[in-house]
Write a structure and sequence with these properties.
Shape of chain A: flat
Distance between the termini of chain A: 19 Å
Oligomer: heterodimer
Shape of chain B: elongated
Bound molecules: protoporphyrin IX containing FE
Largest sheet of chain A: none
Largest interface: A-B, 41 and 46 residues
Helix content of chain B: 25-40%
Number of helices of chain B: 11
Largest sheet of chain B: 9 strands, antiparallel
Strand content of chain B: 25-35%
Chain lengths: ~270, ~475
């Protein structure tokens, strides 16, 4: 299928962008920064195209649905959202040093999707319970949230590396702090929306908006961790290191919600196939 | 205020308490995903030492999300929220109503140079222009003649965002309330109804007995369609809801499209086929194609030349992943023989050459000279319905909407105030711009920069 071919090329573009961002640091030439950004833009364009193609191909197969229904597709969309958000952040803060930390997340997701055994990249037909627009909005909002948390996590890591001479290019602490906060807020709003749309879907499909299945419970855990983080900052004035730690803990919860719970039984384990 | 001194009050007004409670909720939830809960707990409890199992049982660890612990946490969180909100309310109200003109001490001290500039117009003209500009984007514009020829104009924006956080917290309250209502007064259960049959009670989830429904459900027909790979594509039941033998409602029920009736919601949850379907069998004798008969489980028929009788022992929709099969028992003068007849025997032979020799039970020609052929199986479906009632759901839905509105107000809006001082400076007029915001300093900065630009542009335009 063309879409999987396009998408596997995207992986290389993102990897290339990462390497260019590294060159920019090593050689200190802005040329590499520009090259990296164009590689990211090219990758994002191809990525978007790949998603559209996949959508179209699913209709050609007579089982048309948005490419957001199985594990492979969720990984691809996750990576897309991370890169999309990264482009916006780089463009807004006019600083390229984040690329070295965010792009690995994107190409690892893409590489995992295409290489890991047991992840089928086939376009599969939807069982009736998954045929719902609420499910589509659920997946979109959740992964936008995850993407924002991924960026916050990357900035959190940068926070701890910034005193190492090798990483002297990392922006000042207060800029990092602001970035962590903004991305956390964005992630929190999207995660809230994601949980809500998921509940609406569950309400129509399963007969209860909330059933405490492990995936739901872990999304609530993640949400609460970020709620703690926002209160600690806003009301208790926590900044810098503590926020970076919380961004990392929060991201661990995101990962467990996304991948870890698939090893526990529950409704959402459809993602395993 | 005396209430600040009250230890009860100050305990519940603390955000440390909030953080502690949220962390406890996180811990409890994590435990709840590692210890099997509710239905899953039964098997688990049998596999661990009985002392531990009964300890966990008393601690309500097998239904943590409906336990006293969880309830207590939610109760404390609610109290915490209420006290916190009341505590901060008067301050918020003051900030909301406070006339911006009174400003603060030192508002204009230490302004960055970009926020101070000079122009040629006189104070009166500048005041007019600035007021005109502010009026476009700001509210509650007021001006104040400080000294004889010094004017301060001020305006504000986003005043109402001060309440957004209260909206978020109110929504959390409603959410907890709605969830509790659902947990204590709601119920959930399942019922299977065969085509043509009726049901007026359901089995409650978690083995909590049965519940009578306020109506009777009849399944008139069940229809399922499959994709090519055998995965179900759509399924639906045509249902009739009856009360006192009158029809309340009649219509199809589809997955993702529940029917709501008398406060009860009915969902298409699953389906299956009853074991009392019928099989189409042929039994050619010595290569001659015979007739096809339809038989159900337990039925007996005789073979054409009175060579024996055949009884249908079992019907399987998918035996050992090899497709439909029937087990028959042939009684004849030579005794009894029992074997399976697969519908897809040719394919099975192709994939496992020699299987019918190795496993005589799978050989459809075991009773010579007949070769039994399973032409197909007619299934009788039943529909699996989930039935539930949740009086808290509307409250939870309202809470969700409020929460989104509140979050957007909290995070993407702020209360910004601008003060512009206009005073003579020799031949010229000096303009200073001061601003305050309750959050997002970066956004405020950008806004002030834009405003100063606009003022400069408008004054230049006026002078040419
Ligand atoms: C899960 C429950 C809760 C959620 C989702 C929540 C959400 C929020 C949010 C989004 C903010 C704004 C933070 C910011 O601007 O960065 C906030 C602020 C705040 N929260 Fe909560 N909150 C919760 C529980 C509580 C509780 C129980 C208390 C009780 C003490 C509390 C006290 C506060 C206070 C005092 C503020 C600052 C308000 C202000 O002056 O602007 N929160 N909360």
């Amino acid at each position: 299928m063309t879409n999987t071919m396009v998408l596997s090329w995207v992986t290389f573009l993102y990897f290339g962008a990462f390497v260019f961002y590294l060159f920019r640091l090593v050689f200190g030439k802005e040329f590499w920064g520009k090259a990296a950004f164009y590689a990211v833009l090219g990758g994002l364009g191809a990525h978007t195209l790949g998603l559209m193609l996949r959508w179209k191909e699913s209709y050609a197969l007579g089982i048309g649905h948005a490419p957001l229904s199985n594990f492979y597709e969720s990984l691809i969309f996750f990576a897309w959202a991370v890169v999309m958000l990264y482009v916006i952040v780089e463009w807004r803060i006019k600083n390229r040093s984040l690329g070295v930390f965010v792009l690995p997340a994107a190409f690892l997701l893409m590489a995992f999707a295409s290489l890991a055994s047991g992840i089928s990249d086939r376009i599969q037909p939807l069982i009736p319970a998954l045929q719902s627009n609420w499910l589509t909005s659920h997946v979109v909002t959740c992964f936008m949230g995850y993407a924002a948390f991924t960026v916050a996590f990357a900035v959190g890591i940068m926070y701890f590396l910034r005193n190492i001479p090798l990483f002297s290019f990392i922006p000042e602490a207060h800029i990092l702090d602001e970035l962590i906060y903004q991305n956390t807020v964005l992630g929190f709003v999207f995660l809230t929306l994601g949980i809500m749309t998921g509940s609406v879907w569950a309400h129509y499909a399963w007969g209860a908006y909330w059933s405490w299945d492990p995936k739901e419970t872990w999304s609530l855990i993640t949400w609460l961790i970020y709620a703690v983080m926002l209160h600690a900052r806003y009301v208790r004035g926590w900044r810098g290191k503590r926020m970076a730690v919380l961004a990392i803990i929060g991201f661990a919860a995101v990962l467990f919600t996304y991948l870890g719970v698939n090893y526990l039984p529950g409704l959402h384990s459809y993602l395993q196939s | 205020m005396p209430k600040q001194k009250n230890p009860f009050w100050s305990f519940f007004a603390s955000v440390y308490l909030t953080i502690t409670l949220l962390v406890f909720t996180v811990v409890l939830s994590i435990v709840g995903t590692f210890i099997p809960q509710q239905d899953a707990a039964r098997g688990f409890a049998q596999g661990i030492p009985s002392g531990l199992a009964s300890f966990l049982q008393t601690m309500q660890a097998f239904d943590l999300f409906h336990s006293v612990w969880f309830f207590l946490l939610m109760l404390l969180l609610s109290l915490n929220l209420i006290v916190c909100s009341l505590n901060r309310w008067s301050l918020t109200w003051k900030q909301f109503r406070g006339s911006p003109i009174s400003g603060e001490e030192g508002l204009f001290q230490g302004l960055s140079p970009e926020r101070i500039f000079l122009c040629d117009e006189d104070v009166g003209t500048v005041t007019g222009r600035v007021e005109g500009l502010l009026n476009r984007k700001y509210r509650n514009i007021s001006s104040n003649q400080e000294k004889e020829d010094t004017v301060i104009i001020c305006g504000e924006r986003g005043r109402y965002s001060r309440f957004a956080v209260y909206v978020v917290h109110l929504s959390v309250q409603l959410l907890i309330l709605g969830a509790l209502l659902g947990a204590y007064w709601g119920w959930e259960g399942y019922v299977n109804i065969g085509e043509g049959e009726t049901a007026d009670a359901i089995d409650l989830k978690g083995g909590k007995g049965t519940k009578a429904l306020p109506f009777t459900i009849r399944c008139d027909k069940f229809i399922v369609a499959f994709y090519e790979n055998g995965v179900p594509k759509t399924y639906r039941s045509d249902l009739t809801f009856l009360k006192d033998s009158k029809t309340l409602y009649q219509g199809p029920l589809l997955v993702n499209h529940p029917i709501s009736l008398e406060g009860v919601r009915v969902y298409q949850a699953s389906y299956g086929s009853s074991p009392d379907g019928r099989a189409s069998l042929a039994f050619p004798r010595g290569g001659k194609e015979g007739k096809i008969i339809k038989v159900g489980p337990g039925e007996i028929f005789s073979l054409p030349e009175k060579e024996g009788t055949v009884q249908i022992v079992r019907l399987e929709e998918n035996l050992m992943q090899m497709g439909p099969a029937v087990k028959i028992l042939v009684r004849s003068g030579q005794g009894e023989v029992s074997f399976w007849i697969f519908q897809h025997i040719d394919k099975i032979r192709e994939m496992n050459p020699g299987v019918t020799e190795q496993v005589p039970m799978f050989n459809p020609a075991l009773f010579k000279p007949y070769v039994f052929v399973l032409k197909g199986m007619e299934e009788r479906y039943y529909t699996g319905l989930q039935v539930s009632r949740d009086p808290g759901a509307p409250l939870v839905a309202a809470a969700a909407v409020l929460m989104m509105v509140g979050l957007i107000g909290t995070f993407f809006s702020s209360h910004r105030r601008i003060w512009i001082k206009i005073q003579p400076a020799g031949e010229k007029t000096k303009i200073s711009v001061a601003a305050r915001s309750n959050k997002h300093p970066v956004v405020l900065d950008r806004e002030v920069r834009q405003l100063t630009e606009q003022i400069k542009v408008s004054l230049e335009k006026g002078s040419t």
